[in-house]
Design the sequence.
């Protein structure tokens, strides 16, 4: 019998489970070539400024396969007072095709699997002593990244950068309720000056952080850039880094910071390490408090598979 | 609020609606280039002899877009006592991406939209006086085709061909309950000898019907062949026909009877008319009781879109 799981239940299940470890296992399986991910399906609705993506796949010899349907209708807030993004995940039994669960997560699982990936990266690349956590971007992801980092670092000091004082104030208020101390800034340079663990969560199409600002011992996770156009980091930052990690080597050939850095000839693709491989090889973990490390995440379907699995295995 | 629609409700809605007309409108839209159908998504599970297909699309300027997920796990009956085929349809609002309905039809809608296509074809190509309806194949589709023909022809006389006496007896019993008189045969030639409206619904990979058996005034709808391997009709039957229709010209370049006939050089693609175009042009309808007409249906996503729409618009 198929289970319909509403957002509230999804949230409560996630609270009680170790999402980060399951996502981590997913990245290992992915880099180990145990994940089947066919090309993404796409429908575009020009008239309504909308799009729908269908991502699907499975881990070989696992219990499930997952189909994720995500939509973005960018006029929704203006026209209908509805969110731009929406989504659901369908989980099927890999043995016999039976539909096990319909996860009506409204896109929430995508946010969480993205935040959990930031924590996986930080587990291996963040400096031992995190002075302050720097966040670029005041949206949902900028908040969730901090929440998911709490199992990785005890640091509760945040510096947030945003486009307006209004935005950063709202962010500050929100995070302070959760027990963080938050400084706000509209000046980008303040972030790498104060913080040695930085997460960038913006849709910027121009580099925000400059190479000369980045001090030894800093880790940066670039979450925002997931297309060929978006870019948050000056490519020289990658050239200057000791370790450069991507979640998917194949995706980095068409999008993200690494794509920008390689196509502009600033780094060679040989230096780039895939996240699952980094996790499995101690030599690619942070070795000392002087290294500059960069992770460029564009998001892979195995994250959707793994987070859906958590819900499916804990529905009762 | 998303509506979850179970199979029983789906069946009752279909009973009270004119499925054939809605499917017909879909074919017209399709041949009019008003339907967007991206490439089919596919996952294969070699270990469990399973596959999953994702078909999706929409009619431009319509209210909905539809994603259909269908699976075939061929060891299911043997291993789990489950059906091989399963499926569901998701219906979204084309204006804003909202999920409107989850149709848990278990593959039933695919059966019905296929049967309805047979009726659409018969409406325009069947002889005025149907002597007997000939059915090749004793499965679900062989039965449904007859049921959906009842709004097109008053003929209640069926001749059914199958692989075994057991199969045809079961078919006879089933259809007689519904008020039909059914003759059974294991001899293929009996079908075109007795019947001038024939529907082939088998997974055969070798031609079953021969050209020399087909009499003037006969219409054949070939439902079974939907891959590059399957074939139910001797290609010479198509060469000898007055009208040859396919549901999708583009699909007929890679599968079905027309594909076989063109690639073997027996017919030219110029003679083939797309169903939606045939419907809209009287000159392609049956003109007299001497023409031999053939329809080769491989199934198009607009049928899934249209039948899902019927459910979605009649849920209350």
Sequence:
């Amino acid at each position: 019998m198929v289970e319909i799981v509403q957002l509230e239940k999804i949230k409560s299940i996630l609270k009680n489970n170790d999402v980060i470890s399951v996502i981590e296992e997913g990245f290992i399986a992915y880099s180990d070539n145990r994940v089947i991910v066919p090309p993404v399906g796409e429908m575009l609705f020009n008239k309504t400024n909308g799009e729908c993506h269908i991502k699907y796949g499975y881990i070989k010899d696992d219990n499930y396969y997952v189909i994720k349907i995500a939509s973005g209708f960018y006029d929704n807030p203006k026209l209908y007072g509805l969110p731009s993004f929406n989504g659901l995940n369908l989980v099927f039994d890999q043995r016999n095709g039976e539909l096990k669960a319909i996860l009506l997560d409204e896109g929430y699982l995508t946010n969480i699997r993205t935040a959990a990936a930031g924590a996986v990266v930080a587990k291996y690349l963040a400096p031992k002593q995190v002075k302050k956590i720097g966040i670029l971007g005041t949206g949902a992801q900028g908040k969730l990244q901090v929440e998911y980092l709490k199992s990785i670092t005890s640091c509760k000091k945040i510096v947030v950068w945003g486009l307006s004082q209004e935005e950063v104030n709202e962010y500050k208020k929100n995070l302070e309720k959760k027990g963080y101390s938050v400084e706000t800034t509209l000046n980008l340079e303040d972030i790498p000056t104060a913080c040695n663990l930085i997460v960038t969560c913006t849709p910027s199409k121009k580099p925000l952080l400059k190479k000369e600002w980045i001090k030894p011992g800093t880790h940066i996770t670039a979450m925002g850039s997931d297309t060929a156009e978006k870019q948050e980091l000056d490519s020289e930052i990658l050239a200057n880094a000791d370790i450069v990690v991507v979640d998917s080597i194949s995706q980095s050939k068409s999008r993200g910071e690494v794509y920008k850095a390689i196509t502009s000839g600033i780094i060679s693709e040989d230096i780039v390490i895939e996240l699952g491989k980094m996790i499995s090889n101690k030599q690619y973990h942070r070795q000392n408090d002087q290294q500059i490390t960069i992770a460029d995440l564009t998001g892979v379907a195995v994250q959707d598979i793994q987070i859906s699995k958590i819900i499916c295995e804990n529905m009762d």
Q: What stands out?
A: Chain B has two domains: 3-109+302-313, 115-300. Residues 3-109+302-313 of chain B form a domain with the ornithine cyclodeaminase, domain 1 fold (CATH 3.30.1780.10).
